Amino acid sequence: MPMETVRLAREGEIAIATIDNPPVNALGQALRADLARVIAEAGADPAVSAIVLAAVGRAFVAGADISEFGKPPLAPFLPDVLDSIETCRKPVVAAIQGVALGGGLEVALACHGRVASVSASFGLPEIKLGLIPGAGGTQRLPRLIGAAQAFPMMLAGEPITASRALSLHLVDEVVDGDVVAAAVALARQLAARGAPERVCDRTGRLTAADREAFEAQALATTKSSGEMPNAMALIEAVRGVFALPFAEGLAVERALFLKLVADPRSAALRHVFFAEREIARVPGIGAGVKPRPIANAAVIGAGTMGGGIAMCFANAGIPVTLIEQEQAQIDNGMNRVAAIYAMSVTRGSLTPEKRDERLALITPAVGLAAAADADIVIEAAFEEMGVKQQIFGALDGIAKSGAILASNTSYLDVPTIAAATKRPQDVLGMHFFSPANVMKLLEVVRPQGVADDAVVTAMALGRRLGKVPVVVGNGFGFVGNRMLEARTRATERLLIAGALPHEVDAALTGFGFKMGPCAMADLAGNDIGWRSRKARGKTAAVADAICEAGWFGQKTGRGYFLYPEGARSGQRDPEVEALIARISEEQGVTRRSFTTDEILSRLLDPMVNEGARILEEGIAARPGDIDVIWLNGYNWPAWRGGPMYWADTVGLRTLVARLEQQAAETGDATLQPAPLLRRLADESKGFADLKARSA
Ligand code: CAA
User: If you classify domain 297-475 with CATH, what class do you get?
Assistant: First the structure.
């Protein structure tokens, strides 16, 4: 017999229905059925005068069960269950002790009273899944708090606190103590008053002024998010509050919701939701492995990267020592950090007090000896093996026993760095992305020989720093940069074959990236890739020629594009275009034009191919991990789900055929489909069919 997800108990004439459906009380079919049954039972019981709907765990109810979306719907449906709550002849009071999100808030809105504990929070985050509330949220919330308050809340999808909910009259009461007892008291009062007041009947908030304010918000949203189907659907649904009777408004909302659930963009965002949670499970490391305590840190190297990493610690309230070799270098580093904080204060995103608190957490120091007491040391020195080995060799004699020693290397071999110490079990990579205090991605590089609890510590610390940490295996460029390099090579091939920088970039921004590869190289500095190629004996005719001309990008006023007078977005540069045409000619290539789709295929297919090799080699454990890396480190558009998810939507057979054609046309053997890609295509499977492998 399946476990009951709702328990029914009695306190005098009050029935208390307690939801208990771990981990977060999501409204799966079983919970919906149990809720409907319990409400019907208590509603029909002559000894019951009112019902309290409570829950246990960290969530009151976290919303619909997202894993059910896209599958055949199972009765009872949530809107019907909520209707049975709202039309119950006895008052139903929600006792909200944790998060009430999406369908969870909609459950509370269908009740006749709402009591919240101080730590409760409320939100309708459906917009982030490409949806709108689908169980009456767009109709009940405006009736309760006004459309001009409800619309922005649904559009942002961010939760609000209990005290904010009280000030909006979303809840009737906020209590510091026993929320169920307070809800029982309110239920008694409501029962004494007779027929319960239903949110769907309220009209007091829907004034002409409210309508006008909402319409102004709707107009602004149409201008700024015109291409977002869910934002437009939200406007349409909320408009129904003023124009339609409740039942008709509900029907409009439901139809819009179901259409959005079927939209591939929402399916991609749901994939992202689960992939971002899956990364916490590191293959081969059980839940019993606990992180080492981290009370303080040291960062070696006060350049842009090191300073940014130190800021991450300070922002999270963790004391950090920032170390350089010379006083002048550390002074420069601290000045840079102070300038970034000052900018945040000017922009209003940080108070002067918070800035002072954060700066006080960063202690500047000269010499590695200052790392002696740190629980974790992160090296962010010059990207050269000799430099790193020297630092780690010295740290071995300085750092305390059990300290984690991490390198922020972007490309170098972590075991070779670890070999400079006698404690490889404590050495791993923590690869931050620039600017480190902003970018969410953190690649935790797990070389062979590192202790499991060191990996778990780096992951837990990453989350404390507000990052999205993903475990990756050791290998050149790890995951993100290795795939980026595949795209960079593809850009070079395209330019020589006939596309121009602005065409390549436009294809990618049209796909949803914020920037194309040429603008991105200009922003990062073309000399960085140039230096790295030279160190590895590699060449790239166009990129090298641009650097040889001294066109390093935005910082020199020109790169692939022109940036007159410090402009942030580039203009076409006839000299660069002529230079590219000359290189094509020198290489005997007859230039031809490319369609946007061709450009996209040539940029993205090789990335997926590299991703397949990364999976074959176990450098990434799951395709979803690669997707999370590209979403959080490289601005891959979330509604396209990430490169491996995107590949499945294209179809792996199609990809194999396209790569074979590109390999034949260019004579580049690296474009031959990876064996894993070929095998999955032959078996008519996608990356989603792969099981996790140990990184
Ligand atoms: N459906 C299915 N599973 C869910 C879920 C949901 N709505 N919310 C969370 N989970 C699962 C997670 O996948 C995770 O599972 P695993 O442990 O197996 O990985 C587990 O619950 C715990 O989740 P978190 O790791 O995220 O835990 P947390 O404590 O950090 O956060 C949370 C909890 C704030 C509830 C967060 O999970 C969250 O934001 N959930 C999504 C809320 C949401 O988007 N709700 C709207 C759903 S759409 C809807 O409701 C439509 C409608 O109108 C009917």
Answer: alpha beta
Which pLDDT tens digit goes with each residue over 168-207?
Answer: 999 999 999 999 999 999 999 999 998 889 999 999 999 9
- Give the pairing of strands 173-175 and 113-117: parallel
pLDDT reported for residue 283? 92
6-261 shares its CATH topology with 297-475: no
Rounded (5°) CA angle 559-517-302: 75
C-alpha separations of 438 from 312, 315, 338, 467 in Å: 8, 11, 15, 9
The number of beta carbons lying within 10 Å of the beta carbon of residue 453 is 18
Residue 538 CA to ligand 1 center (angstroms) comes to 46
Q: 456 C-alpha to center of ligand 1: Å?
A: 22
Q: Which protein residues are within 6 Å of ligand 1, measured from CB?
A: 23-24, 26, 58-59, 62-67, 78, 99, 101-103, 106, 125-126, 129, 133-135, 137, 274, 277
Annotation says 126 is catalytic: yes
Structural fold of domain 6-261? 2-enoyl-CoA Hydratase; Chain A, domain 1 (3.90.226)
User: pLDDT tens digits, residue range 352-363?
Assistant: 999 999 999 999
Q: Say how far apart CA 602 and CA 605 lie, in whole Å.
A: 6
- Sheet containing 173-175, strands listed edge to edge, beginning at the edge strand earlier in sequence: 6-11, 14-19, 50-55, 92-96, 113-117, 173-175
The DSSP line for 609-650 is: HHHHHHHHTTSSS-HHHHHHHHHHHS---GGGT-HHHHHHHH
CA–CA separation, 232 and 511 (whole Å): 20
Query: For the packed helices 264-278 and 643-650, what is the interaxial angle rounded to 10 degrees?
Result: 140
Tens of pLDDT along 60-118? 999 999 999 888 889 999 999 999 999 999 999 999 999 999 999 999 999 999 999 99
**Which alpha helices (DSSP H) does 316-413 contain, by range?**
327-347, 352-360, 385-398
Task: Give me the pLDDT at residue 692, please.
Answer: 63
Catalytic residue among 86, 106, 379, 492: 106
- Counting from 1 in the atom list of ligand 1, the atom nearest the Cα of 24 is 21
In this structure, CATH architecture of domain 500-592: Orthogonal Bundle (1.10)
Domain ranges of the chain: 6-261, 297-475, 500-592
Smallest CA-to-CA distance from 77 within 138, 20, 28, 129 is with 28
In this structure, what DSSP letter does residue 89 have? S
**Alpha carbon distance 351, 337 (integer Å):** 16
Q: Which of 66, 77, 78, 154 most suits a substitution to test ligand 1, by most atoms within 8 Å of the C-beta? A: 66
Mutate to test the pocket of ligand 1, among 5, 19, 24 (most ligand atoms within 8 A of CB): 24
Expressed in angstroms and rounded, the spacing between residue 40 Cα and the centre of ligand 1 is: 27
pTM score of the predicted model: 0.92
The dihedrals phi and psi of 496, each to the nearest 5 degrees, come to -70, -35
Could you say which residues of the chain have pLDDT below 50?
1, 695
